[in-house]
Amino acid sequence: MHYRRLGKSGLKVSELALGSWLTYGTVTEKQQAIACVNEAYDLGINHFDCANVYGSEPHAAEVVLGEALKPYRRDSYVVTTKAYWPAGPGVNDRGLSRKHIMAQIDLSLKSLGVDYVDIFYCHRYDEETDLEETLRALDDIIAQGKALYIGLSEWPAEKIAAAVQLQKELGLRKFVASQPQYNMLERYIENSVVPLCDAAGIGQVVFSPLAQGVLTGKYKQGQPAPAGSRAATQGVNRFVERLIQEDVLTKVEQLSGVAKRLEVTMSQLALAWVLRLPSISSALIGATRPEQVQENVKASGVKLDESTIAEIETIFA
Length: 317
Hints:
317 residues; alpha/beta; globular
């Protein structure tokens, strides 16, 4: 496993991180989820991502992840969580108000069974809360020792810029991590978010690098979705269906030829392509079986030459 610096912070994270969205606390059995975490840790992954709303109910995934990480020294891994999305029926059970942030960080720490999280993310931008209120609350949870670093997820570039400027003006602790979607099919961050974050010292921890599994080649034109895949799982398939289109699957089939030539799997190729950018600190993978972790970890350290990158650009033009 190779490790990268998270933005301009001193924190080192594994190039591949294990996420728990749509898996732990939901469709993945508890013991199977724990087996995936154990395999990831044994293979050098030190970065584990979660959120308060992951799972079948608020904090469910955090409970599973916390149990899985319990045997390991706390200083040997990086664990994250988030807040923004509704975590209850109350009018204040959502957003990035001081009240919600302070309530959720405490509930997340209890669920994970830890004294602090390494990174606390704002899961989206909150249009209904004054930005200064949010930033001061984030600064306070670091001051209280409940989080070591702060990050944001899927914020528009102009909102990131405003936050960076306000943190500077108020002397508040800076964001060090951005968690956007990024893969061969979703590249919107390249022209705005990445340059802005590079200048501000914010590293990218990208989710869905395999485009919900579409870039693994598991979905074939004219064939039903494989049993157990996200496209075949009720409640999860809505995230995949828009990507399983004929034109996309045609491009993925072309991509398989590149993978065969390089003697890597489709997953490893897609992950290596994401990690070609030095701005990417980690790529988040999901796994329901330890074998998936084993395969994906082999992408760490794979370097794509310029001709291969150009060929992929042509395919996805």
